[in-house]
Amino acid sequence: MNRKLAIVAGLFVAMGPGLLAQEIVAMHANIPFDFRVGDKLVPSGTYLIQANGTAITLREEDGRVVAVSFMTIPESRLAPLADGKLVFNRYGNDYFLASIWTPDSKEGRSLPQTRQEREVARRGAGLVQTAAVQAK
């Protein structure tokens, strides 16, 4: 019994780093307008955007975290983008981060609409425009 337990424990130790390791993709973007990530209002500025699995983190240039979204949905496209891209849903002067596309990848992450975004969309009769910001 102890031998079986040791074998199973050894397998978990050997596989552990591979199971836990996820690539962190980082890119910089200068966003010229205030916007929302989830329920958080983020001022315009230059940010480091990191995508790690299902989480997205926005950091100021000094490294301070300003917003985190743990709830993202995978997306893909046919061809990779040379540069990354942030896509925002715009309702009048209100911008909501809708998705991020990482450089040299077909993969992206979209953020589900928050209750606040749905409310703003409803008040604006659902009229939405998209705004894209290049990220490197």
Report on this structure.
The protein has one domain. Helix content is 21%, strand content 51%. The protein has two helices and eleven strands; from the N terminus they run αββββββββββαβ. The strands form three sheets. Strands 7-10-9-8-11 form a five-stranded antiparallel β-sheet. A four-stranded antiparallel β-sheet has the order 1-4-5-6, with no helix packed on it. A two-stranded antiparallel sheet has the order 2-3. The termini are far apart. Mean pLDDT is 81; it is low at 1-21.
Topology, pairings included?
Blueprint: H1 2-20, E1 24-31, E2 35-37, E3 40-42, E4 45-52, E5 55-59, E6 65-69, E7 73-81, E8 84-91, E9 94-101, E10 105-110, H2 115-123, E11 129-135
Q: Summarize the biggest pleated sheet.
A: 5 strands, antiparallel
Strand order of the largest sheet: 7-10-9-8-11
Number of domains: 1
Give the overall shape: globular
Number of helical stretches of at least 4 residues: 2
The overall pLDDT, averaged over residues, is 81
Q: Order of SSEs, N→C? A: HEEEEEEEEEEHE
Termini Cα gap: 54 Å
pLDDT under 50 segments (min length 5)? 1-21
Counting helices, strands and paired strands, the structural category is: alpha+beta
Kindly state the number of beta strands.
Answer: 11
**Helix-residue proportion:** 10-25%
Relative strand content: over 45%
Radius of gyration: 19 Å
Report a brief summary of the structure.
By secondary structure, this protein is α+β, with helices and mostly antiparallel strands.
